[in-house]
Each structure stands twice: as structure tokens, then as C-alpha cells.
UniProtKB/TrEMBL annotation:
Gene field: galE
Protein source organism: Catellatospora bangladeshensis
Residues in NAD-dependent epimerase/dehydratase domain copies: 6-242
InterPro entries tied to this protein: Epimerase_deHydtase, Lipid_A_modif_metabolic_enz, NAD(P)-bd_dom_sf
Name of this protein: UDP-glucose 4-epimerase
Secretion signal, residue range per the UniProt entry: none
Length: 310
């Protein structure tokens, strides 16, 4: 029996490379579709040499290219997107890639009759939550072009499900971190800021009381959720992917101080801060995907520091 081929957009990026590694371990063939604007060329060249990975260097904005490249693929993972930061600086490009690109991938998947498409959505579709933990059935109130595009992506999946029978799972990723992530990434800027200071023996500086929180989820667990969504029996639902724990910025500073091993106390910069909190209800992930996180924030952050400091 020939190996099943998975089509993965953005497969050369931070999350994509972790997903590809797991797919290869499970004996899939992988076809990466990536414009390589942020992709890891060296790593992709190594993977292509294995004979189990091919690279189509193209852009999701070109529907014909997406359609042609997807031919013969059994399932699809759609990760390609413009980041939150960039979406606010350039809404035009964001809408082009994150909405038109989404539609091109979903339409091609529907036309080719793929078994399942997994879409990287985002916890940002909720906006500022009214309660914790955040549940998939809560009100959605996306605030930036990136977040709006993620919600639109989920709505488009529903359209292609109704009109052409497309089977999908949308994973609402919470605050992803891990080795190999770009320092400019939206959710990791606070980690990088703290670590830079700690490496030189300086205390981390926290705005306000450090009460704002995030649900930090390690990229390895994110990759596991993508493969679980690809293989799960149930589909046509959005699913939260987080730890279910809201880690405050003050707690994060303590974790990183311990991981770096310096004897400092965080400094607080007293000023008004909009306190937003994040924590996922991951009941559906357990029930639908049979998935739950395996890496605690403490362990994950410690490993991240070790990989950076060596």
C-alpha cells in the first residue's frame, strides 16, 4: 500500500517543522507548500533528501498553484498565515494571505475531496474573554485583521462542509512557544525580553502587577494536536489547544529566573495595564481528539532556556 500523502501549507515554518517531524514518524509522505519567506531552507533541504518530503515553493494567494499542488493528497493541514503583529501593520497583506489564502486552500481541498483538513485557528478569535476557562461555544469577538481572518476561516470551512461535504477540524491554538521560534513572535516577546535581561544578571521588568496571563502551550504538544486532529474520527468542530492553566506574567518571570539560575527579584513598573487573561477549556480536545498536553510550563520553559543558553 502506498503511503498516504499529507499536504501542509506553511510546513517550513516554526510549527510546521514540528508537525512534519511527527508525520514522518507516523510514516506519512509529506508535501510542503510554502513560499519560504520565513521557512528554514536548510532543514527543508535535509528533509527532502529523505525521499519522504517534497517542497512546492509557492504562495497560498495563488489558487491555481494550490489546486495543482494538492492533487493526489489524502489530507490537508493549513498553517500558512501572516502574524498578528504584521496584520495590524499591513491589513491588506493580512487579508490577502489569511482570508484569500484560506479560501484557496479550502476550495481546493473540497474540489479534491480530501478526507480531512486541519486548520490552524487561534484563541484570538475570542477577543477579550468574559470568563475563564474559554470554551469553544463562547462568544467570538476577534479584534485584529489576523483574528478576524481566523474566525472567517472557520466560517468558510462551515460553508465548504455544507456545500461540498468538506470534513474539517479547526484548532484554536493558545500561546505557542518552544525552541526554534522567531524572537519577534507576538506571544514570545515577553519571554525573550525577560531572558535577555536574565542572561546579563538583570532582573525582569514587569508592567503593572504582572496579573495579565497567557495559556502557554509547547510547540511539541501543538504538533501532537495537529496529527491527532488529522486522525480523529470526529470532525467539523473547532477545538481549543492549550494547557488549561493561565500563567501570569509575574509567575512566568519566576519560572524563567529559576530556569536561568540567577539570584534576582522581578522589578515592577507601576503603571496602568489592561489586564487580559487566557486559559483554555480543553475538555473537547480530550473528548474529540483524545489529546491532552504533556509538557508543563515549568518544564517547557526550562528546556527552552537550556536550548538557548546551551
Amino acid at each position: 500500500m502506498s503511503k498516504k500523502t499529507v499536504f501542509i501549507t506553511g510546513g517550513a515554518g516554526f510549527i510546521g517543522l514540528h508537525v512534519v517531524r511527527l508525520l514522518l514518524e507516523k510514516d506519512y509522505q509529506v508535501r510542503i507548500f510554502d513560499n519560504m519567506s520565513r521557512g528554514d531552507r536548510e532543514r527543508i533541504d535535509e528533509l527532502v533528501k529523505t525521499g519522504n518530503v517534497e517542497l512546492v515553493e509557492q504562495d497560498v494567494r495563488y489558487g491555481g498553484a494550490v489546486h495543482a499542488a494538492m492533487k493526489g493528497c489524502e489530507s490537508v493541514i493549513h498553517l500558512a498565515a501572516v502574524s498578528i503583529n504584521k496584520s495590524q501593520a499591513d491589513p491588506y497583506e493580512s487579508i490577502d494571505i489569511n482570508v484569500v489564502g484560506n479560501n484557496n486552500v479550502f476550495a481546493a481541498a473540497a474540489d479534491h475531496g480530501v478526507r480531512r483538513i486541519v486548520f490552524a485557528s487561534s484563541a484570538s478569535v475570542y477577543g477579550d474573554p468574559k470568563k475563564l476557562p474559554m470554551h469553544e461555544d463562547d462568544e467570538l469577538s476577534p479584534l485584529t485583521p489576523y483574528c478576524i481572518a481566523k474566525r472567517t476561516g472557520e466560517d468558510l470551512l462551515g460553508f465548504y462542509q455544507r456545500s461540498k461535504g468538506l470534513n474539517w477540524v479547526a484548532l484554536r491554538f493558545f500561546n505557542v512557544y518552544g525552541p526554534g521560534q522567531k524572537p519577534t513572535a507576538y506571544y514570545t516577546s515577553v519571554i525573550n525580553h525577560f531572558v535577555k535581561r536574565l542572561k546579563t544578571g538583570q532582573p525582569p521588568i514587569i508592567d503593572g502587577k504582572g496579573e495579565q496571563s497567557m495559556d502557554f502551550i509547547h510547540v511539541h504538544d501543538i504538533a501532537r494536536s495537529v496529527v491527532a486532529a488529522l486522525e480523529s474520527e470526529q470532525g467539523n468542530v473547532p477545538v481549543n489547544i492549550g494547557t488549561g492553566i493561565d500563567t501570569t506574567v509575574a509567575s512566568l518571570a519566576e519560572i524563567l529566573i529559576k530556569a536561568v539560575g540567577v539570584d534576582v527579584e522581578p522589578q515592577f513598573n507601576p503603571r496602568e495595564v489592561l489586564v487580559s487573561r487566557r486559559a483554555a477549556d480543553i475538555t473537547r480536545a480530550k473528548e474529540v481528539l483524545g489529546w491532552e498536553p504533556t509538557i508543563t510550563v515549568g518544564d517547557g520553559m526550562t528546556d527552552l532556556i537550556k536550548s538557548e543558553i546551551g
